[in-house]
Write a structure and sequence with these properties.
By secondary structure, chain A is an alpha/beta fold. Chain A contains eight helices and ten strands. Chain B is built from six helices and seven strands; from the N terminus they run βαβαβαβαβαββα. The chains are: A alpha/beta (280), B alpha/beta (185).
Chain lengths: 280, 185
């Protein structure tokens, strides 16, 4: 049975997600801040975490953006194969939703031409990832991605011989070299395997996981915990002022890769780990 | 380390020489704003020997590109942007009398040396705390480069604007000292 979804509904849903994600920090992040305050050794670090909790409260109550960097609009869409979209183009509907959301929500427009740096004026085009899945529903995940933490992210094609330890070293060194720049305490998404671009998408998807949830594979869950412990021993701390909470969580996703390759992507997410989703 | 000090802009060399890394400072008076594009334009004017659209002597520049102000508010969310992108431009502005910069993240050795030589400091504001910080801004006015939108140069009137000294006039760096103190590697 084919189920119809109108482009107007998609526009409205995306618009609302843009505003919701930028005003209302997820409960999983707020709970992670509370745990971090308990664990943080540095008084300055605890002060920063308190400011972040207070900031999230003000944003929620006053309907204001959590951060002035309202990000590029990253949108993951799962379209059921029994869905028929009516009234127009899906990508244009998403972009129109972003356009309306960033205007109506008084969100900062940060999209520009890569060379002239001229702002596109409405935060489009969105970065849209579409996947066809079974069923007759459409799931839209909206994740605004700030520039500071994105700039610290990297993809590397490692030599297979370095194995898991090489991946751990690469991630820990990336976080170390990023220092205070990506607004710690961060969330670290790691994508291992696939191809060059696939690893980056895996890493991006990884940061959408709820903080505290481990990879269902016990081996991978163990690696996530090991990397998190190692990162939090670096001493960078909240905002880089020193401390033992540099990251709130580490998420690892893997896929098979070429026999010659070991692609690894590290996507760093600032503490404003914003993402909201809706199912139509 | 870590005491609270109230300062009002413009700042003198004596004002900033008293500051040490880790000090919490509440800034009052006015701040200038500017990020990548505004810094590039200021730098081009300096190279051409032309006058700047704002007097930077004794001033503090805040690296910020705020969200649009809602009706009735002076400014939208206004937390700091990452500072290293301003590193190529900052030393020249410091030489011309800039006394402070507010941002987040590491500065290059060249900037740290310029702060030491010409007596200026780098303050950290809490990145991502844009809604909280905006409440300390009482008035905002665009004074140059309105065409740059969020990147225009503004004058902000601030009350008890909260910052932490990251680089002082003695060449110290809070980021390096913090890691030395808390690293367990």
């Amino acid at each position: 049975m084919i189920r119809e979804i109108s482009n107007k509904e998609i526009i409205k849903v995306v618009r609302d997600l843009c505003i919701d994600a930028n005003y209302n920090l997820g409960d999983d992040v707020l709970r992670a801040f509370d745990r971090a305050i308990e664990a943080e050794e540095s008084a300055t670090g605890r002060e920063v975490l308190n400011e972040l909790i207070e900031n999230a409260r003000i944003a929620r109550e006053e309907k204001a953006p959590i951060c002035q960097d309202c990000g590029l609009a990253v949108v993951f869409i799962e379209v059921g194969q029994d869905v028929h979209i009516t009234g127009g183009d899906l990508k244009e509907a998403v972009n129109e939703g972003v356009r309306q959301g960033y205007k109506d929500g008084y969100l900062r427009k940060s999209a520009c031409h890569p060379f002239t740096r001229k702002n596109t004026g409405d935060n489009t085009p969105a970065i849209i990832h579409i996947q066809i899945v079974p069923g007759d529903r459409m799931k839209i995940v909206f994740a605004p991605k700030g520039g500071g933490a994105e700039n610290m992210s990297r993809v590397n094609m490692l030599t297979p011989a370095v194995g898991i330890e090489g991946v751990k070293d690469f991630v820990a060194n990336r976080v170390k070299e990023s220092g205070s720049n990506p607004c710690p305490p961060t969330v670290i998404g790691i994508g291992v395997g696939g191809t060059f671009e696939r690893s980056a998408i895996l890493a991006k998807k990884a940061i959408l996981r709820e903080i505290g949830n481990r990879n269902p594979d016990p081996e991978l869950a163990k690696i996530e915990e090991e990397i998190l412990t190692r990162i939090n021993r670096l001493g960078i701390g909240p905002m880089g002022y020193g401390g033992n909470i540099t990251s709130l969580d580490v998420f690892l996703e893997i896929e098979p890769c070429h026999i010659a390759s070991l692609p690894v992507a590290v996507n760093i997410q600032c503490h404003a780990a914003r993402h909201k989703e809706a199912v139509i | 380390m870590s005491k609270q000090i109230r300062l009002t802009t413009p700042l003198s060399s004596e004002d900033v020489e008293k500051l040490n890394i880790g000090d919490k400072v509440l800034l009052n008076g006015v701040l200038l704003t500017g990020r990548d594009a505004a810094h590039k334009r200021l730098s081009e004017l300096i190279e051409e020997g032309k006058e700047l659209p704002v007097d930077i002597k004794g001033q503090v520049i805040y690296f910020v590109g705020p969200t649009p102000a809602k009706p009735g508010k002076p400014i939208g969310s206004a937390g700091p942007t990452t500072s290293y992108r301003m590193d190529p431009y900052s030393p020249k502005l410091i030489e011309l009398g800039l006394k402070g910069m507010i941002g987040k993240g590491n500065r290059s050795q060249v900037v740290i040396d310029a702060m030491k030589r010409f007596k200026a400091v780098y303050f950290g504001a809490t990145g991502g705390a844009g809604a909280l910080i905006a409440k300390r801004v009482k008035k905002a006015e665009i004074v140059a480069y309105a065409d740059l939108g969020p990147e225009a140069i503004r004058i902000l009137e601030v009350e008890d604007f909260p910052v932490t000294v990251v680089n002082d006039t003695k060449g110290n760096d809070l980021y390096q000292e913090g890691i030395k103190r808390y690293a367990k590697v």
